[in-house]
Write a structure and sequence with these properties.
By secondary structure, the protein is of the alpha/beta class. The chain is built from 9 helices and 9 strands. The strands form 2 sheets. Strands 1-3-2-4-5-8-9 form a 7-stranded mixed β-sheet, with helices on both faces. Helix 5 packs antiparallel against helix 7 (174-190). The longest helix has 17 residues, at 174-190.
């Protein structure tokens, strides 16, 4: 029997103008972590679609069965759905959603206007020995799950009320970690192909994906028509729901307006 979507984590569509925004959540996350951003951007006249990546927001066993190509297919489905309502599309992603935004922007070049990637990893966090994908997959057959981190997940959140209502899987399926690593390799290879404006946002206090990841992504965007970095402080990893969310939302909106007007800086 197919698992049901966890209440409050459903995908969303907010119709607006002819500029569209495709919002993509992170690894083990749900559309809920992008909903507030979608509501804000829609209030400014943008058409917003928040997708659910395959295997997410249902049951963790569903995620174990998903492959990185299923996640790219989820983005592709959302892109084609949104394309029927708008003239141009901005891809906005959090964490692994940022990885998918950067990668998939190189596959849908005709209507892509720009990319906003937030809290995005360049390489797999907590992988000092750089184990190959095949090894992680093999290990995942023995140890199915790994803890999210060695500390209470709420410690890094500044807005404790927002954390209390946050929804994500409590553990990382090891097989899915291998899929994430494979996806990261795809993104790294695709970075030179990104030729449109990109805004990177990262919290200096992010304990999950260290800020140095943003610098590596920025350096890899050698052909982007425009690229901008924004560091925020006073937030953990999920900048779309933590205390700095309003600053993040406004930065993304300013970026979209600036790109549409042909400006050069945020």
């Amino acid at each position: 029997m197919k698992a049901q979507i966890i209440p409050t984590t459903e995908p969303f569509f907010f119709p607006g103008g002819r500029t569209g925004v495709l919002l993509i959540h992170g690894f083990t996350g749900t559309p809920k972590e992008m909903r507030w951003m979608g509501e804000y951007l829609n209030q400014q006249g943008l058409t917003c679609l928040g997708i659910r990546l395959d295997g997410h927001a249902t049951d963790i066993e569903d995620m174990r069965r998903s492959r990185w190509t299923d996640w790219t297919a989820s983005v592709g489905d959302g892109f084609h759905l949104l394309s029927g309502s708008v003239d141009r599309i901005f891809l906005i992603g959090l964490s692994m959603g940022g990885v998918l935004s950067l990668l998939m922007s190189t596959r849908f070049v005709e209507r892509i206007a720009g990319v906003v990637a937030m809290s995005t990893p360049y390489s797999l966090p907590r992988d000092p020995r750089n184990y190959p994908v095949w090894f992680i997959k093999l290990y995942g057959k023995i140890v199915k799950y790994a803890p999210r981190s060695g500390t209470d997940p709420g410690v890094s959140w500044v807005d404790k009320d927002a954390f209390a209502s946050h929804v994500s899987y409590p553990r990382n399926p090891m097989g899915s970690v291998a899929e994430l690593k494979a996806l990261l390799y795809e993104m790294q290879s695709a970075l030179p192909e990104v030729r449109w404006p990109v805004l990177l946002i990262h919290s200096r206090n992010d304990p999950t994906v260290l800020p140095e990841n943003m610098e590596k992504i920025f350096a890899g965007l050698v052909n982007a028509s425009d690229k901008t970095k924004l560091y925020v402080t006073g937030s953990g990893h999920v900048v779309t729901r933590d205390a700095v969310r309003q600053q993040v939302f406004e930065a993304a909106l300013n970026f979209i307006h600036r790109v549409e007007q042909g400006g050069e800086s945020v």
